[in-house]
Amino acid sequence: MTLTFHIRPANVHDVDAMLGLVQDLATYEKEPESARATPALFRENIFEKKYAHALLAFDGTPEAPGIALGMALYFFNFSTWTGKPGLFLEDLYVSPDARNKGIGKALFAELGKIAQEKDCARLDWSVLKWNTPSIAFYEKTLKAKAMEEWMGMRLEEQGIENLQKLAVHAA
Fold this sequence. Notes:
The chain has 171 residues and is α+β, with helices and mostly antiparallel strands.
């Protein structure tokens, strides 16, 4: 049986559905305790300050939508090498029951359209090394290439705070 679904940009009324998908993703990635986002943080940072954007895939049609089946959350960055913006896909998640039905491909197609509209030179994302089904999809279906020479780095809140110790103080 074919699944009927549609994709649209998320809006502030979708926050609960988005957070549900984020929690499901965190559980899939074996880190449910790490998903600490709240409805207030999503409303403020995605829909008011617009630090990120999201696409949602829903069961059904636009006129009669059902439940949220998948999400792509992204933001724009900038490449000094190309002199152009890039699109960074922070998270892409499709509910287990809705996988292998074209939703992931459709979300990537929408991201590609957005990247082209914004004249992005790149579309980047990260994937956990153990997530072999996703890696296979990215390499075989999307023809994406692994960035073997790059290693991701991160500072979390305390690390960011500690950067103040490096500040040069004017005399």
